[in-house]
Amino acid sequence: MNIWSYIGKRVLLMIPTLFGVIAITFAVIQFVPGGPVEQALMELRKAQTGGGEASGGGATGYRGRQGVDAERVKEIQALYGFDKPPAERFWQMLKGFVTFDLGQSFYHHKDVWGLVKSKLPVSISLGLWTFFLTYFISLPLGIAKAVREGSRFDVATSIAVLVGYSIPGFVLGVFLLVLFGGGSFVQWFPLRGLTSDNWEQLSWFGKITDYLWHITLPVVASVAGSFAVMTMLTKNTFLEEIRKQYVLTARAKGLSEKAVLYKHVFRNALIPLVTGFPAAFIGAFFAGSLLIETLFSLDGLGLLSYESVIRRDYPVVMGTLYLFTLIGLVVKLIGDLCYVWADPRVQFESLSR
């Protein structure tokens, strides 16, 4: 099987996977109480009754419609597209997804695709720093630990990274804000946002400094827990390679430890790390950023997704789910291709089984 046949086969497999994820989520949404129609009816009833509470209910019951004119109910249903059967709404949504028309947000009254793009800079900024710092620190540290296995350096760094891994990023973020954000000690860093209010008036050097000043605490809170996994994976991978027969042969030929490490061990040990590179790169943007974005008031994709679920903003929920699932499937394919690129001994036939 050549590369193009393999890619074609994987793309064909992506279609039912993507369809299944979207269909299951859409079906579940139909039974979630407090949908956009019911929320609108409850707000309308509160306005008519002077702020009294309306009863909740499922998306099909509309128990919040009590006291609201039936024609008004139909207008609200048509406004949100719920005047059509679920199957018709589902197929219309799929047709839009094919052309990347993700619909309009119920809450923001904006195009979902444009809304996602407006939130990307924050998530990309936080994700890039998290990814590069994790790799640039964990890889050298893991190699150093493998070379010095059992030493005081190995034990001390293991304790440090495991302690960092045991502390949730959100808890560490709170601690950093209390310690350095003006909580109870010093105010060296700002409490929220990526830039100051006067950022546009600053010089280019001032803008860079202001940005780094704002991003420091969120990045530290995001990165601390990521060191342990990558560092220990690097260490164990290198140790496994160091103990193989070809390393003993290279040493017997009189090669220096530096030559053995970087000319032989390094190339083979990086294979599992390189294959996970695409997934880690994309995952840094979309995974685990919700609590950090909420804590530091960063208006990114994580906060957008969370607020959309709470507000029952279904076009944003389904649109972001579609994009994230599609990206995840493509990244998985890229990871498999990287595996073959890093290790030519692996054939596409074995990956497709």
TrEMBL record:
Membrane topology, from the record: Multi-pass membrane protein
Domain ABC transmembrane type-1 intervals: 120-335
Keyword presence, DNA damage: no
Entry's transmembrane regions: 12-32, 126-147, 159-191, 211-234, 270-296, 316-342
Subcellular location: Cell membrane
Alphabetical UniProt keywords: Cell membrane, Membrane, Transmembrane, Transmembrane helix, Transport
Annotated coiled-coil segments of the chain: none
PROSITE patterns: ABC_TM1
InterPro entries: MetI-like, MetI-like_sf
Family listed: Belongs to the binding-protein-dependent transport system permease family.
Entry protein name: Microcin C ABC transporter permease YejB
